[in-house]
């Protein structure tokens, strides 16, 4: 069927509100983009712009995905289906409705559901699946994406986002669901249970068990912003439990708001996301600013440096945490102790870990692969998970959850800052000391949005050119070109190419798995920041010139 045929078919069976939205469309390109394909159920689930259409996030695409999940569970996990599915959601527009739609489809299919009664962070969902011994989990979120987006992530029984081995089977069941108008979404109240504070309290206690300095007086002045998301209550409760009483919340960003009305983007990776927190920190002479994204799995950090507040990068936060945690727990480390990082995460944290006698394991991009390592290590005495992190501001210490957790990260970052404050040091000073010891690293990311069919084709063309060209066709000092599509370094195949330079710096290029973007990662060594940054700008210009990225 053409996109026009699919559009006309939808008009014959959707509800009146959706039909009205579709009939109001006048831009043929917009109609085409909404219907030229089905919103793809990928390795983690769904993510897309909200709206009516087969290529949009709406109650019908939610029903299709959930019916596929129900069919999968009955066919592949029949003996465990009665353990049920846990569902959570964040502050995004339509998240509560989408969560309820998923719950109703599962209950209609005879599968028990435990649904959170209010918005919760993604790591709480991951924890709850394990804590409640559920067979699967769902969280409705688009994480740090713009307000137009929402998503649907599926978790396995260990609280880990499903990895390709599972997802590829599940996708077959989802794709087999073609009769969307007749999916049973009436629900079954006898199979639906609402959950809340008792699970969140257990989560906070599990997070607190990762405290490096439990039951000690804290003197750090903290500014916190939940960026209108789900982190407000769990983060503040965790900090209070840990003895941080001088915590000041950015009031204008405290309440849930799916329009994220005070920020351009609710992504802690974006410098502007913490602007209001920084302003409050300067006003109050706070020591640190922390901000969590809408589903509170990522965290941004700004720290005092004299009269200024300096924003740390995801790689810098990770390296600081690695050094701090391994130093504080050095008496508990053993030969099996393992740090897990992704292949696009900078090398400073890994170098620190190896220097302290800790193993380093690498995974593909995506925290689900770090979570998968935790599951593998349950039956592998040669590895003991200590910490996992990725450059995109995601961290996990402990195994209470198997996804990145901004709540435990907030606790440990604040304990780290408080510890060094007692020694008269800032985190900026500590970071410089690490550079002095291990060498300077400049890590950066250039992200380019290429929307629509043309954008997707352009991204595919770029990857094809990079794949087929000589290793130094675009970058002159390449020592080795690694094509992860071939399944190298013991990792599953992935659409990514990494150029390793003569000094072991590297540049990696990969399409985003969740947005219409192509991303270029830089991890460059240098004598100092200015030299490395100039080098990065030269490489960036090469990519932009050769592939028309600006």
Distinctive features:
single chain, 550 residues, alpha/beta, Alpha-D-Glucose-1,6-Bisphosphate, Chain A, domain 3, 4 domains, 6-stranded mixed sheet, 5-stranded mixed sheet, 17 helices, globular
Kindly describe this structure.
The structure is a single chain. With 550 residues, this protein is of the alpha/beta class. It folds into 4 domains: 1-36, no CATH class; 37-202, 3-Layer(aba) Sandwich (Alpha-D-Glucose-1,6-Bisphosphate, Chain A, domain 3), CATH 3.40.120.10; 218-438, Alpha-D-Glucose-1,6-Bisphosphate, subunit A, domain 3 (Alpha-D-Glucose-1,6-Bisphosphate, Chain A, domain 3, 3-Layer(aba) Sandwich); 440-547, TATA-Binding Protein, CATH 3.30.310. It is 38% helix and 20% strand. It contains 17 helices and 20 strands. The strands form 4 sheets. The chain has a 6-stranded mixed sheet, with helices on both faces. It has a 5-stranded mixed sheet with strand order 8-7-9-10-11, sandwiched between helices. Helix 1 (3-11) packs across helix 3 (28-35), helix 8 (197-208) packs across helix 9 and helix 11 (314-328) runs parallel beside helix 12 (348-355). The model has no long low-confidence stretch (mean pLDDT 95).
Topology readout:
Elements: H1 3-11, H2 16-23, H3 28-35, E1 45-49, H4 59-76, E2 85-89, H5 95-108, E3 113-116, H6 122-131, E4 136-140, E5 149-155, H7 164-175, E6 192-195, H8 197-208, E7 222-225, H9 232-241, E8 247-249, H10 275-284, E9 288-292, E10 299-305, E11 308-311, H11 314-328, E12 337-342, H12 348-355, E13 359-363, H13 367-377, E14 384-390, E15 394-397, H14 406-421, H15 427-438, E16 440-449, H16 452-468, E17 478-483, E18 497-501, E19 506-511, E20 517-526, H17 529-547
Parallel strand pairs: 2-3, 2-4, 3-6, 7-8, 7-9, 12-13, 12-14
Antiparallel strand pairs: 1-5, 4-5, 9-10, 10-11, 14-15, 16-20, 17-18, 18-19, 19-20
Helix pairs in contact: 1-3, 4-5, 4-7, 8-9, 9-14, 11-12
């Amino acid at each position: 069927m053409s996109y026009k045929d699919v559009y006309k078919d939808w008009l014959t069976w959707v509800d009146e509100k959706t039909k009205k939205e579709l009939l109001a469309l006048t831009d043929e390109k917009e109609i085409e983009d909404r219907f030229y394909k089905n919103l793809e159920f990928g390795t983690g689930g769904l993510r897309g712009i909200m709206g009516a259409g087969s290529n949009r996030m709406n109650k019908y695409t939610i029903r299709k995905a959930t019916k596929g999940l129900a069919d999968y569970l009955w066919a592949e996990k029949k003996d465990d289906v009665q353990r049920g599915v846990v569902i959570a959601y964040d502050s995004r527009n339509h998240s509560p409705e989408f969560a309820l739609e998923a719950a109703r489809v599962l209950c209609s299919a005879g599968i028990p559901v435990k649904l959170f009664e209010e918005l919760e962070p993604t790591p709480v969902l991951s924890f709850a699946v394990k804590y409640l011994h559920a067979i699967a989990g769902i969280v409705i979120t688009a994480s740090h994406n713009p307000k137009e987006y929402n998503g649907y992530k599926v978790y396995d029984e260990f609280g880990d986002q499903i990895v390709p081995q599972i997802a590829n089977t599940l996708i077959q069941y989802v794709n087999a669901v073609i009769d969307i108008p007749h999916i049973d979404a009436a629900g079954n109240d006898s199979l639906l249970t609402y959950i809340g504070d008792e699970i969140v309290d257990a989560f906070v206690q599990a997070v607190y068990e990762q405290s490096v300095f439990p039951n000690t007086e804290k003197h750090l002045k903290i500014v916190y912003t939940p960026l209108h998301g789900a982190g407000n209550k769990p983060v503040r409760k965790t900090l209070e439990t840990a003895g941080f009483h001088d915590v000041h919340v950015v009031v204008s960003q405290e309440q849930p708001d799916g329009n994220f009305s005070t920020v351009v983007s609710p992504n802690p990776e974006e410098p502007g996301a913490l602007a209001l927190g920084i302003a409050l920190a300067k006003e109050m002479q706070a020591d640190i600013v922390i901000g969590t994204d809408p589903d509170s799995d990522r965290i941004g950090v700004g720290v005092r440096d004299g009269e200024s507040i300096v924003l740390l990068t995801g790689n810098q936060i990770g390296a600081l945490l690695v050094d701090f945690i391994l130093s504080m727990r050095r008496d508990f480390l053993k030969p099996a102790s393992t740090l897990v990082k992704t292949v696009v995460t900078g090398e400073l944290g890994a170098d620190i870990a190896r220097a302290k006698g800790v193993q380093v394991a690498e995974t593909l991009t995506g925290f689900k692969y770090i979570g998968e390592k935790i599951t593998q290590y349950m039956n592998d005495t040669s590895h003991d998970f200590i910490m996992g992190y990725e450059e995109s501001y995601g961290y996990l210490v402990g195994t209470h959850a198997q996804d990145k957790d901004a709540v435990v990260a907030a606790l440990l970052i604040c304990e780290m800052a408080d510890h060094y404050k007692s020694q008269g040091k800032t985190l900026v000073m500590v970071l410089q000391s690490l550079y002095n010891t291990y060498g300077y690293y400049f890590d950066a990311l250039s992200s380019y949005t290429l929307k629509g069919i043309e954008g997707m084709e352009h991204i595919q063309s770029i990857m094809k050119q990079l794949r087929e060209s000589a290793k130094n066709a675009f970058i002159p000092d390449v020592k080795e070109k690694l094509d992860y599509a071939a399944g190298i370094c013991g990792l599953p195949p992935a659409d990514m190419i990494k150029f390793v330079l003569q000094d072991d710096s590297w540049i990696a290029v990969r399409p985003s798995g969740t947005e219409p973007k192509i991303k270029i990662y830089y991890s460059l060594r240098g004598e100092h920041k200015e030299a490395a940054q100039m080098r990065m700008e030269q490489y960036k210009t090469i990519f932009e010139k050769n592939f028309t990225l600006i």
